[in-house]
Amino acid sequence: MQKSKGVPSIAPKALLLALLLAPLGARAAEVSSPDGRIVFELGTDDDGGLVYSVKRDGAAIIDDSPLGLEFEHSAPLRDGLVIDSTEHRSHDETWEQPWGERRLVRDRHEELLARIKTSSGPDRHFFFRIRVFDDGVGFRYEVPEQPAYRELAIADELTEFRVPNEATAWFIPGRGWNRYELLYRELPAREITRAHTPVTLRYEDGSHVSIHEAALRDYAGFVLDNRGGGMLKTDLAPAGQGAPVSLEAPFKTPWRTVQIASAATGLLNSDLILNLNEPNLLGDVSWVEPGKYVGIWWAMHVGAASWGTGPTHGATTANARRYIDFAARHGFDGVLVEGWNVGWDDSWSANGDTASFVKEHPDFDLAAVAGHAAEHGVRLVGHHETFGNLSNYEQQMAAAFDLYEQHGIRQVKTGYVAGGGELVRSDEHAKRQHEWHDGQAAVRHFEYTLREAAKRRISINTHEPVKATGLRRTFPNWISREGARGMEYNAGWSLPNPPAHAATLPYTRLLGGPMDFTPGIFNLTPRESNPSHRIPSTLARQLALYVTIYSPIQMAADLPQHYEARPDAFEFIVDVPTDWEQSVALAGEVGDYVVYARQARDSRDWYLGAVTNEDPRSITIELDFLSPGLEYSATVYRDGDEADWNSNPYSIEIETRSVRHGDTLTIGMAAAGGMAIRMEAAK
Ligand code: NOJ
Ligand code: CA
After folding, report:
1. Which of 14, 19, 326, 497 is buried most, with the most CB atoms less than 10 Å from its CB?
2. Which protein residues are within 6 Å of ligand 1, measured from CB?
3. Per-residue model confidence as pLDDT tens digits over 75-118
C-alpha cells in the first residue's frame, strides 16, 4: 500500500505543453494496468474541476474529460476541488461463477483510491476509485456521509468520455419509446446524438473500445449525449418526480467502464464488467438451473394463437400438456406458458392496473399442468407480464411467487411492456408516477424482484429490462434478460432483424451479459397470414445462434411440429448445452461476423458457432482450443453449397468427421448464414 499526500493539480490548457515536457506522474495521480499498457490519469483543471484521461500504449483512448456530480439543494462536487491523498492497491484473484460463459474468472487490476476535497470553504469530500485492468478501466464516485451531504438528490452527473469524432460507433439510440429494442446504427462517433450503452467504437488505429457501466444498483442508468468535439456525456435517466437519483450518503455510484482491446474479439473475451460487480449475495445458489426450454409463445407472436381467452387461446391445459410431452421426449428442462393468468383479454398492453398474477384463465389448470410436468421430469417456466405497472406487480409479488414455488416452478420470465418513460408506479402519496426502464425506481424494482424471488428459490428472466451491468454476479438468480431486439421481431409483426443484427449483438448488448434471444426458428416463413414475410436466416444459422448468443437458459422457440419435421437439424438444439467451462471468441468484426468456441461445463466437449451478416463468407480458424492428444468427433451443421437465405434457406449439410488440436477448419457461410459444430471428445 502506498500513500501520497497533496498530489498537485494539472491545468488542462497547460496540459498539452506540459505533457511534452515532463513525466506525467509529477503532476497528477495516475495508475497503470498490470501489464503497464493502459494508464488512467486523474487531475484538476484551472477551476479545480476534476479531469481524467485514459491512454493505451501512450495513445489517448479517452482524452481529457470532466468528472463531477451536481445536487439539488446541496453544493456540487464540480469545481474548487483538490486531490487530497491517494492510496494504491494491487489485486489478483480468480473466482468461480455458479454458471456462466466460463467457470473461472480472473480479476487482476491495479486500484487507485483518491480522496478529493474542496480547496476552500466548509469541508466537502468524496472518494474517487479507479481500477485499471489489462482490458480496460472502471471508476466510480463514493460519497461518505458528512455535514454537507446526508439526503441527496443527484441532479446531474458530469462524467464525460472524450472519444475521437472519426471513430466508428455502434449503438442504439437512447431514451426512446421502444426502450432497448432497436436496430444498431453504425456511424462516425460525431453523428451519435444520444446513445444507450454499451456504445462500441473502433478507432482509426484499430483499437476497439466499449463504454458502459457496471453494478447499476439504486441509481439511474445513463445514456450518452453528444456534446460535440467527441464529448459523450452521461445523462441520467429522469425520475417520475424530482431529481434522477435520490439517496442518502454514504453512497457509491455504479462503475463507469471503458473496455479496450486491439481486436473486436478482445472485447468479447473481457470479464471487466463482471469483475466490477460485488460477489454473490445470495449464498447457496445451487437451485439456479441453467437449461433449455420450449413454450407456448411463438404461436402468439406469429398470430396462430392468442394470449387472451377465446377460440385460439394458447395457454390451455391441453396445449400445455402437449408442450410438456414434447419437452420430455426431447430432454428439455422447462416449458414456458404465456397468457395463463387473468389480464390478457381485451387490449392487453393496457391492463397494467388489473392484471392478476394468481388467477388463472378458466381453461388453464395450473395445478394439473404443473403436476403433469413433474410426472414427466419437466418444470413449468412461470410468466408475469406486468404491462409496465411496477406497483400492481409488487403488491401481488409475494403471493405470485409463493404460488409458483408451491408448483415447483424455478424460473419466471417477467415482462414490462410499456413505452419508454411509461412504467407506472404509485408513490408514497399514492400518486401515479411515470418512470423509465433504466430510472432509479425501475432499478430498485428489479432488485426487489430478485430478492423476493430468491426467497423462493426462483430465478428471473426479465423482458423489457434495464440494461445488463453484470449484476448476475451479485444476484445469480438474474438468469437472463432481453433488452435488445430478440427473435420476436422476426415473427412478422415488425420488419425483421437484418442479418447484421446477430453479428452486432455480441459486440454491443451482450457485453453487458446474457440475453434471452430465443433462437431456433425452423419455419422461416412463420406467419401463415403473410407468406411473403421471410426471416433473413438460413437453417444452419438458427443452430449457430445457440453458441454465438450467450444465455444460461435458451429457448427452442419454434412450434414442436417444425422441429419434428427436421429431426436431423433439431439434434443440435437437443445436444447443445447452455452452461460453459470456458468460452473463446475466435474471430470476428463488429457487425460483420463472429466465431465462438465454448467448452461444455463438466465435459471435454466443445461447441462452435459462427454467424455472418448479409455477406457470404469463408473463414479459416485453427482448432488450437482443443486439448492436445485428444481425438474429437465433430458433427458439422453448415450451409449447403447452394444455400441462400432468400431462395434456399433450408439447404444444410450435416457431416461428421474427426478433428484434433492443431487442425485448421474452414467455415463457409451463406449470406445471413451460419455454422454450428459439436465436437465430442473420444471416450
Ligand atoms: C414482450 C416479450 O419480449 C415477449 O417475449 C412476450 O411474449 C410479450 N412481451 C408478452 O409478454
Ligand atoms: Ca420484448
Report:
1. 497
2. 297, 338, 385, 415, 417, 463, 482, 488
3. 999 999 999 999 999 999 999 999 999 999 999 999 999 999 99
In the prediction, which pLDDT does 27 show? 46
Average pLDDT of the residues of the chain? 95
Active site residue ranges: 488
* Cell reading at 13: 490548457
Task: List Cβ neighbours of 324 (8 Å cut-off, separation of 6 or more).
Answer: 335, 369, 372, 373, 376, 378
Distance 197 CA to ligand 2 centre (A): 18
Whether the per-residue pLDDT at 22 is higher than 70: the answer is no
**Strand partners for 195:** 173, 224
Number of C-beta neighbours around residue 566 at 10 A: 16
Q: What phi and psi, each to the nearest 5 degrees, are found at residue 382?
A: -75, 165
Ligand nearest to the CA of 386: 1
- What's the confidence (pLDDT) of residue 3? 34
Distance 401 CA to ligand 2 centre (A): 22
Q: Kindly state the cell numbers that stand for 180.
A: 432497448
Q: How far is CA 379 from CA 16, 376, 552, in A?
A: 63, 9, 16
Interatomic CA distance for residues 421 and 38, integer angstroms: 38
Instruction: Give the chain's domains with CATH numbers.
Output: 21-275 (2.70.98.10), 291-570 (3.20.20.70)
* DSSP characters over 260-319: EESSHHHHHT--HHHHTSPP-SSS--TT---EEEEEE-HHHHTTSSBSSSSTTBS--HHH
- Whole-model pTM: value is 0.95
